[in-house]
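The protein record passed on below.

***
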Amino acid sequence: MKFNRFGKYPIAFMLVLLCAIPYGIASLHGLHHPTFVHAQEPPQVQSPQPELNPIVPESIFMSQLPSWARLVDIRTVNPNIRLDIRYATANNFLKQKLYSTAKCALRKSVAQKLALVQTDLEKIGLGLKVYDCYRPFSVTKQMWQVLPDPRYVANPARGSRHNRGAAIDLTLVDRTGKELEMPTPFDDFTVKAHRDYQGGSALSRNNRQLLEDAMKKQGFMGITTEWWHFDSEDWEKFAILDVSLGAIP
């Protein structure tokens, strides 16, 4: 009997060939050096990384921020601005003292702009009285627990512009320090405090507009729900801080 060149067992050879093809043998010449196709590993599911803490540590605040971005006491920039820091007393909507000291701290560049507002107002016999400036992030969390309403208190998940040292709550005073009439007192959480409220006296509305115009001239913008609240136009470039007021020179 005559055998072909594949040897005595053509059937066995064919079985080996059929079994080998799925594993990547490209040709008969590759029988001695088979190429295997490796199954791809399933994609690895990466566990979500914890969100970076947006709060700048106090050590970084004190040593690494440029001078224009550091918090300063407004009295070192313009001592003529009057203070009535409500959260350093129990005279606020929480009815408790939240600050260890009655200090208005702002980013230096923001404080310099506020000083210009004061200078402008003095030319017409008026001035500023400040209720709140920089607010530590921990205090914002306390406020949210009592009043979780984003119209009036910043959600800690995003932080407040007060936490950035770029927001001020304030009003107008005359030469003697007496407050000018406004539509509502500070921290009145009703529609009467809204910037477009048309009730109340004409004088109160005129004073509200006078304050808004003076602040806008120097680069501040108001919000719709609080006539007393103003943000520096560049607030977004400042990080959220949780620095105690007592640590600010």
Notes: Helices lie at 10-20, 58-63, 108-122, 137-146, 202-217. The chain has a mean pLDDT of 81. The radius of gyration is 34 Å. The CA atoms of residues 42 and 48 lie 18 Å apart.
